[in-house]
Specification:
The complex is a heterodimer of chains A (221) and B (675). Chain A is mainly alpha-helical and 221 residues long. Chain A has one domain. Chain B has a domain of 47 residues. The N and C termini of chain B lie far apart (57 Å).
């Protein structure tokens, strides 16, 4: 049993690490549609992680959450985003606030920061997923950083979704999942937020002929 | 009794929902909403009376899924008294509204008014019934919001929107203070139930108690309209539909009095230092005096009444404050007397102020203006409204045999009895407060001599007034109920005092009904019958008898009683309404005497004929009084926040990335701090 739990824990850590890796890929990727694909990939890793945790802990409601993640984040949201991108005249992000190498370096720093912060917490718990907590925190920070570094609304949206993935991983890792009601609410929120942001991006395109959120400053009085 | 509560809930519930379902039939909408309100308020009256007479408080509660919130109600005598007050005034207002709302038909949605009106009454009832701080705040906030929506009924006018916004801001500031007060209690008990507030595991430290006192005073004071937090009253009460003004001015501001008594006497069990009472007394005295003085200068009838609410809240607080001082010195009988006087004035003010607002509404209904200078001669055209308004005016001016007289007399007696306090300072201050109260009474009388005289007597001053007609039966009925109650409560303290004693006895820890009702209940005495006593029934009889006697003497000695109608002699000139005493002219002497307080600006421009300076072509007279509190307190505050907001605009660059960076940096900083 001990060994089984050890292997399980290692598997969860592996999946979490794959999630983190896709984060770096998203930061490095300039093509918008590729970003969306990478997000879908990341989400499918998340599904696997959640399913693993559900199997190892025997909490059936995490299966439901995993299934919903699959349906919403792997299938529906990427489709919506692809449609939005089809509507746009830009397919690539040319100018960024932080260029790709610097961005990757900063992300590396953020991962170290996350592990540094989570260090005192990790030994406290005896969960099999405890290392994932630091990774989840790193994903949240990288997601937020992506939102800052990118100019196009679509990639900011992807940043937001990455952040949300980090939160979900954190919740699964730290507490074996939030109550199902809360999770359902969060999924609904994410779905709606994506839909609204998608519509908003289209409107942005129509109004400014660009999806640079920098342009929004002209709305100031 | 809980069944009655369900009935009340059902009545109001039907009143809230049904009008919204009957779209396109305004007549039916307003009828259903008002009939439902009548059912609800009548149930409330019964509930209040039962609660006042029952020996044990009735409680009930419904759990909720929100942590710390339970829908707990508790009907103790104090709550029952306020339920009774709310329901009595609500009953009269809903009967009145059947006729009054006709003049809104077509201009605005009657379904919305009816529905909001019911919801407003319901929330007020639950404010006083709530036995859980969370529930209380919920009801309180809903009450404030619903009344805001009722205030902005005629939102197409800029003046109304401004009044509404002002009210909304003020009431939210007030609520914030109340929340702080309750949170301090919560810190000590980790529960929001009022029962836990009453009996905390450890008593609050002195400093915290003082903070609660101040927060409650500021929070409830904003709603009550004590000076200098009164500024919203004249705006909001003026522009709301009149039956809503009657409710807001008559009962909504009383929920604040309820809150104060609940916190000071119930939660703290009457354990507080004397200066709490003194602060309340001081604020009460200031409000009473300044309230009536500003009222005098108003020619908008509803604004005038709104300022009188400030005055009367002041009088109530004077009774309450004196009671608190006595309580602090352990003079329990006198404390009970002060509390009783305050509560008596609470219901009295609710009745006569609602009556006067309904009267003002009738004048508005008949003449389409609130400006007194355009009334005149209305007594002959609207005799019923005139009589009812006169009764209300007598009550508010504290003239026997009406109710205002009895309660103000009790407040006076409470203040005079201050010689029993061991401190010289207070021995001096309380009689001064009594003297100011006397001045207030006189000024109120002047004010209503003006209001009644200018509005109802002499000749009509405008075409509107000339074509005025008496209001519909339902409006007269609404006013009639209140007028009858005003007289009844004035003549029969023998019924009222024992009921009030039910409330006071648990709070002050002593029952004084038998002492206040001296000589088998035929006379009122402030605890001590040797000190002074007053028999209102005898006084009323004397008044009636002297009137009959005067009439009789006139018949016997004065010869034939014939009426001769002819025009007044005007030195050969035909008298026109322009020659009448105006409201502005009437208060001119007072304006002069108190010019330090009013700081009036008078502008008189005369345009002369080109040929000679002896003949003026046109004169333009303008007169303003300085709104001191708005100018020196509120305007600087608003300006301060304005500049602060301007400064903050620097970091609001409008860039999404910058905002995200703010969040990111804050997050990292907080995480690092946590490690």
């Amino acid at each position: 049993m001990q060994g089984f739990s050890y292997i399980g824990s290692q598997l969860v850590d592996l999946c979490s690490a794959l999630l983190l890796l896709t984060c770096f890929a998203i930061v490095a990727q300039r093509r918008l549609s590729a970003c969306v694909d990478l997000f879908a990939l990341q989400s499918s890793f998340l599904v696997v992680t959640a399913a693993l945790v559900a199997y190892l802990t025997g909490n059936p409601h995490i299966y439901i959450a995993a299934g919903l993640t699959g349906a919403i984040k792997v299938i529906i949201i990427p489709r919506v985003l692809k449609k939005v991108i089809d509507h746009l005249n830009v397919k690539r992000e040319l100018v960024m606030h932080v260029n790709v190498p610097t961005g990757l370096l900063i992300c590396g720093g953020l991962v170290m920061l996350a592990f540094f912060i989570a260090q005192p917490i990790i030994p406290l718990g005896n969960l099999l997923t405890r290392d994932s907590l630091a990774i989840a925190l790193a994903i949240v920070l990288i997601g937020l950083f992506t939102m800052i570094a990118r100019q196009k609304a679509v990639s900011q949206l992807v940043g937001f979704l990455v952040l949300e993935n980090g939160l979900f991983l954190g919740a699964t890792a730290a507490t074996y999942g939030m109550p199902l009601v809360v999770e359902l609410g969060v999924f609904f929120d994410v779905l709606i937020a994506t839909l609204i942001a998608g519509i908003y991006t289209n409107r942005l395109q129509d109004a400014f002929d660009s999806v640079d959120t920098d342009r929004l400053t002209v709305l100031k009085e | 009794m809980l069944n009655l509560l369900w009935l009340l809930l059902g009545g109001y519930g039907v009143g809230i929902l049904l009008p919204l379902c009957l779209s396109g039939r305004p007549g039916l909408q307003q009828l259903t909403s008002n009939v439902a309100a009548i059912v609800g308020t009548s149930t409330g009256v019964i509930l209040g009376l039962l609660g006042l007479t029952s020996s044990e408080p009735v409680t009930g509660s419904l759990a909720s899924t929100i942590p710390l919130l339970t829908f707990a109600v508790r009907l103790d005598p104090l709550a029952a008294f306020f339920v009774l007050t709310i329901s009595l005034v609500g009953l009269a207002a809903s009967i009145y509204a059947i006729g009054y709302l006709q003049h809104f038909e077509g201009r605005t949605s009657t379904a919305a008014i009816g529905s909001l009106f019911n919801a407003f009454l319901l929330c007020m009832t639950f404010v006083v019934l709530a036995d859980n701080a969370f529930f209380f705040l919920l009801a309180w906030e809903l009450m404030s919001l619903l009344s805001y929506f009722l205030v902005v009924t005629e939102h197409e006018k800029a003046e109304v929107r401004y009044a509404g916004l002002f009210y909304l801001i003020m009431t939210h500031i007030g609520t914030a203070f109340i929340v702080v007060a309750f949170l301090i209690f919560f810190q000590g008990t980790w529960s929001f139930s009022f029962e836990a507030f009453r009996h905390p595991a450890q008593p609050l430290p002195e400093g915290m108690k003082t903070l609660v006192f101040l927060m409650a005073l500021l929070g409830f004071g904003t709603k009550a309209g004590i000076i200098p937090l009164h500024v919203w009253l004249p705006y909001a009460h003026t522009v709301a539909p009149s039956h809503v003004s009657a409710l807001m001015s008559g009962v909504m501001i009383k929920t604040a009095i309820y809150g104060l008594i609940r916190v000071y006497f119930d939660f703290f069990g009457g354990q507080f230092p004397w200066w709490w009472g003194f602060t309340v007394l001081l604020l009460g005295t200031t409000s009473a005096l300044l309230g009536v003085m500003y009222a005098l200068m108003e020619h908008d009838l509803k604004r005038l009444l709104a300022f009188h609410s400030v005055e009367n809240i002041g009088i109530i607080l004077m009774g309450l404050g004196a009671g608190m001082i006595f309580q602090a010195y352990g003079l329990r009988e006198l404390a009970a007397l002060g509390l009783l006087a305050g509560l008596y004035h609470t219901i009295n003010h609710a009745l006569f102020k609602a009556l006067l607002f309904l009267g003002a509404g009738s004048l508005l209904y008949a003449t389409h203006t609130r400006n007194m200078e355009e009334y005149g001669g209305l007594l002959r055209r609207m005799p019923w409204t005139g009589i009812f308004f006169l009764i209300g005016a007598m009550s508010i001016s504290a003239l026997p045999p009406t109710n205002g007289f009895v309660s103000e007399w009790l407040v006076f007696q409470t203040l005079f009895l201050s010689f029993q306090i061991p401190t010289v300072f207070l021995k001096l201050m309380l009689p001064i407060a009594a003297a100011i109260l006397a001045l207030t009474g006189v000024l109120a009388l002047t004010c209503f001599a003006k209001a009644f005289g200018i509005s109802f007597l002499a000749q009509p001053r405008s075409t509107h007034a000339r074509h005025a007609e008496e209001v519909p039966v339902s409006m007269r009925m609404g006013m009639g109920i209140l007028a009858a109650l005003c007289v009844a409560l004035g003549v029969a303290p023998i019924v009222v005092v024992p009921l009030l004693d039910q409330i006071v006895a648990p709070l002050a820890g002593i029952s004084i009904a038998s002492k206040v009702l001296a000589i088998d209940g035929w006379a009122l005495a402030p605890v001590n019958v040797e000190f002074s006593s007053l028999s209102t029934p005898v006084l009323a009889l004397l008044l009636v008898a002297s009137a009959i006697l005067g009439l009789g003497l006139a018949v016997v000695l004065g010869g034939r009683l014939t009426t001769r109608r002819s025009k007044s002699w005007g030195c050969g000139i035909t008298l026109t309404p322009r020659m009448e005493y105006t409201a502005t002219g009437f208060v001119q002497p007072i304006k002069r005497v108190f010019s330090t307080i009013y700081q009036p600006t008078v502008k008189l421009e005369t345009e002369f004929l080109a040929e000679s300076r002896y003949f003026s072509k046109r004169r333009h007279f303008e007169f303003h009084i300085e709104p001191i509190f708005e100018k020196y307190l509120y305007d600087p505050l608003v300006a301060f926040f304005g500049t602060l907001a301007d400064r903050l605009k620097v970091i609001q660059a409008g860039s999404l990335h910058l905002y995200l960076t703010y969040m990111f940096v804050t997050l990292i900083a907080l995480l690092l701090l946590a490690v």
